[in-house]
Amino acid sequence: MYDYLIVGGGLAGSMLGYLLKKNGYDVVILEKQILMKKSKLCGGIITPKTYSLLTSEFPKVDIDNIVKVKFKNCDIIDNIKINLDNIDIKIVDRKKLDDYILNKYLKLGGKVIENSKIENIDFHNNAVISNDKKYKFKYLIGADGTLSYVRKLLTGKIQSKNFALESFQESKNKINFTIEFMGDYKGYNWIIPMKKEICFGTGNIAQNVKIQELFEDMAKRYNFKNDMKGAFLPTGSDILLNKNNVFFIGDAAGLISPITGEGIYYALYSAQLLFKSFKENKDYISLMKNICKKIKKELFLIKIIYNSKIRNFVFRKIAKKNKISNLIKIYIKNLLLN
Questions:
Q1: Which end of the chain is more exposed for a tag (fewer CB within 10 A), N or C?
Q2: Is the pLDDT reported for residue 319 higher than 80?
Q3: Is the CA virtual torsion 295, 300, 306, 312 positive or negative?
Q4: What's the pLDDT at 31?
Q5: Mode of pairing for the β-strands spanning 27-30 and 111-113
Q6: Alpha-helix residue ranges (DSSP H) falling in 224-288
Q7: pLDDT tens digits, residue range 229-268?
Q8: Whole-angstrom Cα distance, residue 121 to residue 127?
C-alpha cells in the first residue's frame, strides 16, 4: 500500500517522486524498464524558463555540468535564411539529466520497482497489478509517456500523437543551430551541433506525412548518415490532467509546446504543480490553467506558421530589413521565457 504510486520513472516521474520524497510523502515508482539503461529520444534543448526551473530546485553547478553546449543564435530556413540573435538556448545531455534527478530521488530513500509491466489497473479498488503483484494506492500518477498505458486503461484510448525521427552522429562540419521548414510540410527539421557530434531530426504535426522520406532527404542534403530512431510525441491538443484520484504529468498528460516541440519544461513544471496541489490541497487543473491556455494558443498559431504562403511572406519582409522585426523577436523571447 502506497499513498502515491507513480507509473513511469522518466523525467516527469522522477521529478515528482523526488519532490514527494523530499517532503516526507509515501511514494513508489513502477518502471517497466531498467532506468539506468533507459534513454529517451530528445535533442535536449532547454529554454531559459527550463534552466531557471532546474536551477531553482537543484544546485546551479550541477545543472551546468549536464549542459553540453550553449547557443546565442539560431538559423531559420524556408527558402530564405533568417538569423535569430541573442536567443539563449542550452543543450543538455538528456540521459544525464534524467539520471541526475532519478539519483536525487534514490538518495532520499526513494523506491523504484523496475521491470514492472502493468497488467491491469483496478480503478474502483485503487490497485495496480504488475508482475502478478498487487500495489494499492491512494493516488495514481501516470508519468509513462505519450503512449501512456495508465491513460489507455483509464480512457480506453491512446492520446492524439505525432511522430519524430532523430539521429546522433559524429561530425566535423561547422553547422549553426538550425530550424528548417520545408514548403507545405507540416513540421520541421532541426540540426543541433554539439561538441563532438550533431543531433538532427524531423518532426511532423500531420499523420499522413511520409516522415522517413523527409528525414532521408535532409540526411542526403547535409551529408549525414541515414540512421535513425523514432518516438511518438504529444500534439498538445489532447490534454488530460486528472480524473478522480488519477493524475497525469509530462508527455502522458499530453503536454508539449506545439510550436517548438519543447517537452522537458512541461515534464518538470507539471510535476512541480502536481506536487504543489498535493502539498497545499489545491486543484491541479486550476494550477495548470495558464499552461493549458498557452498550449491552446500555440495550437492556433501553428496553423499560421505551417501555412507556407504566410510564412514566406513574413520571411521576405524580414529579409528586406536585413534583421528580424522587434515584434517577432519579442514574441520568440516571450515564448522561450514564459
A1: C
A2: no
A3: negative
A4: 92
A5: parallel
A6: 250-253, 264-280, 284-287
A7: 888 999 999 999 999 999 999 999 999 988 878 899 999 9
A8: 6
pTM, two decimal places: 0.90
Q: At residue 320, does pLDDT exceed 70? A: no
Cα–Cα distance measured from residue 157 to residue 34, given in angstroms and rounded to the nearest whole number:
26
207, 230 contact by CB (below 8 A): no
Strand order in the sheet with 178-180: 45-46, 80-92, 67-78, 178-180, 187-193, 197-204, 161-170, 229-234
Task: Read off the C-alpha cell for 314.
Answer: 513574413
Give dist(CA 155, CA 159) in Å, integer: 9
C-alpha cell at 296: 491552446
The pLDDT assigned to 301 comes to: 82
User: How confident is the model at residue 119, as a pLDDT?
Assistant: 93
Which backbone phi and psi does 128 adopt, to 5 degrees? -105, 130
